[in-house]
Every structure is written in structure tokens, then in C-alpha cells.
Amino acid sequence: MTTKTKAFETKDALDLYKKIIYTEGKAGRRMDKKQIEEMIDLAIKQLGYSYAPYSHFHVGAALLAKNGTYYTGCNIENAAYTPTNCAERTAFFKAVSEGVKEFQAICVVGGRDGVLTGYAAPCGVCRQVMMEFCDPETFRIILAIDKEHYDIYTLKDLLPLGFGPRNLTNSREI
Q1: Catalytic status, residue 37
Q2: Is the CB of residue 106 less than 8 Å from the CB of residue 142?
Q3: Which is nearest to 65 in space by CA: 55, 57, 73, 53?
Q4: Is the pLDDT of residue 25 over 60?
Q5: pLDDT digits (tens, 9 = 90+) for 136-159
Q6: 147: phi > 0 → left, psi -120 to 50 → alpha, else beta; which?
Q7: SS3 57
Q8: What is the pLDDT of residue 171?
């Protein structure tokens, strides 16, 4: 049986956000279960901020920078569709807009009407943004339903042969 989590149970979400966003994490170290669970909690809390009046598919993300800071995001839809922004890119753009460009991991959760019943993998555009800023061999992507149901992938797992900044150098490495 799959556990279902309602997205809109965001009681104390702002307090959790304030607590985590300015907390120095375990940057550069292997992620432990407690840190993964914090990221899952934070991503789930972001579902309550999602603006998805068209698809009704709510997505939340928690991005861990290498300096230990968490950046959060939710999906923000638009009637014209193209200007829609995914939760993952929202988190990345928040971080980059504050001068942070090195990342360790991201947790992504999502589901129709905010009910989490399966994994919500990043779209191709989000994977491409990750490729711009992250090492595909080491950057971790946590896809979760709750603290008991999650899997961890590398960016390379989800975007093999990805195109990134290294492709634009004069290097002939394969």
C-alpha cells in the first residue's frame, strides 16, 4: 500500500523554512538519513505554496547547496503554459540569484492535487538546469513520497550523456 500525504498540511511550514534555510548543513559530507528526512519534509512543505490551477499537479523541491544552505521551490503555472516554472528550477534560480552556484542534492516530491502516491521525476528542462550547475557524477536527486519511501539517483542516472558546460570547452575528452 502506498502512503498518501496531503500537500496542504503546511502548519509551521514557515518556521521550518526559517529554521532550515539559514542552517549550516553537512556540506561536502555524505548525506545521512536525518539530512535526507529534513529535505523530504521541506520539499513536502513546499507543496502548499504550489500554484497549479491548470494541471493540479503540485510539486515541491528542497535544494541543498554545498555551503549547507537549503533553497526551496514550488511549481508556478501560467495560463500561457510556456512561462510555467517547475519547483526544481525555482529552487535553483533562488540560489543562483543569491550568488550560490555549487550544489550537493535536491529532493523533489509531487502529485495530483498535492497527494503523493508516486515519484515526480524532474522534467528534461530541469535536468538540463541541474547539468549547468552540478557534477552529474556526484549530484544527488532524491525522489520521495515520504520519509519511508524514497530513492536516490545521481544526475548522470537521470541524464546520461547530458550536455553541459564541459561540452563547450576545447577539450576532446569522451
Answers
A1: no
A2: yes
A3: 73
A4: no
A5: 999 999 999 999 999 999 999 999
A6: alpha
A7: strand
A8: 63
Q: Where are the alpha helices (DSSP H) in 22-174?
A: 33-46, 87-97, 124-133, 155-158
Helix (H) or strand (E) holding 150: strand 150-154
78-93 pLDDT per residue, tens: 999 999 999 999 999 9
Cell numbers linked to 15: 518556521
Contact call for residues 89 and 124 (beta carbons, < 8 A): no
Helices 124-133, 87-97: crossing angle, 10 deg rounding = 30
Euclidean distance between CA atoms 149 and 125, whole angstroms: 25
Helix or strand or coil: residue 141?
A: strand
Assign 3-class secondary structure to 104-127: EEEEEEEEECCECCCCCCCCHHHH
Q: Which of 77, 88, 102, 132 is catalytic?
A: 88
Calpha distance 130→137 (Å, rounded): 12
- In single-letter form, the type of residue at position 38 comes to E
Report the alpha-carbon distance of residue 45 to residue 61 in Å, rounded. Answer: 9
Contact 114, 151 (CB under 8 A): no
Neighbour tally for 137: CB within 10 Å: 8
| The three cell numbers locating residue 58 | 503540485
The label of the residue with cell 528534461 reads 124
The residue among 92, 88, 109 whose CA lies nearest residue 37 is 109
